[in-house]
Amino acid sequence: MSRGRFVAFEGGEGVGKSTQGRLLAESLRARGLEVVTTREPGGTAGAEAIRTMLLSTEGEGWGARAEALLFAAARADHVEKLIRPSVARGAWVVCDRFVDSSRAYQGGGSGLSDADVMQLHRIGSAGLLPDVTILLTVRPEISAARLAMRDGNAADRIGGRGEEYHGRVAAAFRRFAEQEPDRFAVVDAEGSPEEVHARVTAAIDKALA
Ligand SMILES: Nc1ncnc2c1ncn2[C@@H]1O[C@H](COP(=O)(O)OP(=O)(O)OP(=O)(O)O)[C@@H](O)[C@H]1O
Ligand SMILES: Cc1cn([C@H]2C[C@H](O)[C@@H](COP(=O)(O)O)O2)c(=O)[nH]c1=O
């Protein structure tokens, strides 16, 4: 049995995480590997239900602490029921966002401390971290153009927060990547999907060599 791996894609809104997750999964499957593609918040029935509660624009929404707890609860279910069992049987798990999104959004964006976010993650998911985290970066005008093409003016509750909020999120992601160079690979996500995919593959090969 080949060894299971856990790869997460991170970054701001519309940088191309889902697109690159799909291309990576296709290329791994072409090599005969079992691949599980999944996303956060979500990936299990319970976590998808929490996703709806978190991202729906109906109602008054959540305070920063309640929001962080809900993300951690969704992640706990996802880790226990899907991610850990898949990696344990030798599959590659390719996940669109993981705990670094909580650190960047609920931490960097909303002001919770990194220690508090990681404490919730220790309680919920025993602190599981990906083998490699690909941080996709593009200039804000490029991601805005990609989102306009995909969604028009539609945004979920968190995606719809202002420019300053998303600026703090982007700065937090950059900080984590600088602080943890062994776990993060920063990939320039400008250019065609195929060009970015080639950079992602090279980054993963290097990180997991
Ligand atoms: N390299 C690329 N060049 C041009 N368009 C792209 C590229 N990558 C993705 N796109 C397009 O940009 C849009 C956003 O991409 P995608 O949905 O993969 O981003 P995302 O980071 O997963 O978004 P979200 O943050 O909403 O989950 C999609 O319409 C996708 O087809
Ligand atoms: C996992 C996670 C996500 N978020 C935010 C980031 C996005 O605004 C949405 C998810 O939408 P996507 O289109 O699937 O990227 O949720 C967050 O704030 N904290 C998290 O831990």
Automatic annotation (TrEMBL):
It comes from the Bacteria. PROSITE patterns: THYMIDYLATE_KINASE. Phosphorylation of dTMP to form dTDP in both de novo and salvage pathways of dTTP synthesis. It catalyses: dTMP + ATP = dTDP + ADP. Coiled coil: none annotated. The keyword Chloroplast does not apply. GO terms for biological process: dTDP biosynthetic process; dTTP biosynthetic process; dUDP biosynthetic process. GO terms for molecular function: ATP binding; dTMP kinase activity. ATP binds at residues 11-18. Residues 9-199 form the Thymidylate kinase-like domain. It is an enzyme of class 2 (transferase). CDD domains: TMPK. One of its GO terms (cellular component) is cytosol. PANTHER family: THYMIDYLATE KINASE, UMP-CMP KINASE 2, MITOCHONDRIAL. Belongs to the thymidylate kinase family. Its EC number is 2.7.4.9. Keywords: ATP-binding, Kinase, Nucleotide biosynthesis, Nucleotide-binding, Transferase. This is Thymidylate kinase. The lineage of its organism: Bacteria, Pseudomonadati, Pseudomonadota, Alphaproteobacteria, Sphingomonadales. It holds the Pfam family Thymidylate_kin.
